[in-house]
């Protein structure tokens, strides 16, 4: 699929339902679960319904899908179907449902099916979203070598970053090697006593059709953060605790929490210079049936303003609204 989209600026999408069918047929059909002399095997993808697409705008690629699957299975003494009513871009692996229907059944097949085969099916479903992007995303973008905008190029690179292992170190004990002939300096100040960048500030806001309490919890409660980041977050709703989001690409520290009113955090993109953090204050102002969320960002590296603001607009504001139905998405 060729694409004419200078700097990958405009919205482009690709229908991936055919690819999705091929993916599940290849990855699920033939999958087996075994225990003792009992083997249960997926024999067919009976049906696949729904939508699956990859989309890009301003260099950022996302996947949007909502699918329903029916699989056929059999063992030596039983056969039937597995109905999976929802496989969606915002479904957590533990939330997948597997409804079993037997044409004929024996006492041995069901436990093997649930304990040995379904965990393998769950793993395939979990890998679908990232694979969808990595296989199909390049079809809707100009090659990165042709992109001149540093903003869209940065978004493009982040779209394909696989989650990485986060090293468990404390932020306020960062180690900075100043020179090969100098000793290593351990800073006790989170952002360092010397600025790492020339910086500026940003302010913006958005209105959500929900209460301040719901919005506050959505930003700091791990189970809710997992839904809108579409990944397993490392975050605790405790003042002074560190957090890592989006597979470790965003990291920081919760400095101040005022329940349902304010969150103050130190925040950074992982490839920024070691020790540099932006201080972000999020204020929640609840009105009649809606809540205004205001962002004040201090210490944003000059030249990174558009990248930072667009990441908040796309990865925080837009995705939270889409995931929880908290308002119209433009």
Automatic annotation (TrEMBL):
Span of domain Activator of Hsp90 ATPase AHSA1-like N-terminal: 13-138
- GO biological processes: protein folding
Q: Which SMART domains match?
A: Aha1_N (SM01000)
Q: Which GO terms describe its molecular function?
A: ATPase activator activity; protein-folding chaperone binding
For this record, the Gene Ontology CC terms, alphabetical, are: cytosol
Q: Please name the SUPFAM superfamilies in this protein's record.
A: Activator of Hsp90 ATPase, Aha1, Bet v1-like
Pfam families attached to this UniProt entry: Aha1_N, AHSA1
Give the signal peptide range.
Answer: none
Which family does the record claim for this protein?
Belongs to the AHA1 family.
What is the name attached to this protein's record? Activator of Hsp90 ATPase AHSA1-like N-terminal domain-containing protein
| Origin species | Eeniella nana
